[in-house]
Write a structure and sequence with these properties.
Blueprint (H helix, E strand, L loop, with lengths): L1 E6 L4 E2 L5 E2 L2 E2 H18 L3 E4 L4 E2 L2 H15 L3 E8 L6 E5 L6 H12 L4 E6 L4 H5 L4 E8 L3 H6 L2 H13 L9
Parallel strand pairs: 1-5, 1-7, 2-6, 7-10, 8-9
Antiparallel strand pairs: 3-4, 8-10
Helix pairs in contact: 1-6, 3-6
Length: 176
Amino acid sequence: MIILLDMGHCLRGFDTGTQGYGKTEQACTREIGYKFKAKMEALGHTVIICSCDSSNSVGESLGYRVNTANNTGGDLYIAIHLNSGGGYGTEIFTYGAKVFAEATRTLDGFIALEFTNRGIKDGSHLYVIRNTKMKSMLVECCFMDSSSDMQKYNAENFANAIVKGVTGQTAKPIEK
């Protein structure tokens, strides 16, 4: 399986993410994403990074992610994010709120980590979901501005849940 991985937001420049409780979204998405990548590759899958580390605009950042995915091709595009805005819990965005196995299993994995289920939602308004040519999902792991969510934040657990969601297999710990 070929996974196109977008670890949401840039590290610097425009399009940096939200923050909360001493963490930044862009650091968390990379922490989760690189763990996910290593675990998927250990299971024999290919993971291609579509993230943009620096950009001069949000449009440039989003365009880079989508163009990289579309030009490379693959089976599934995954954008990893953390939410903010006064809520709590986890949700996944797909085109037209389409329910498919990888999205359902990933959401179930996050719920098993005791995050509130906010469901699979319509992500047609999201640039990366609307413009990628392959099956895609944007995962909002938890809310960065929720103390209850951030007390449960664990990059290893999120990576394991996404791996199991995508493959149906349990990820093995990665040797350092």
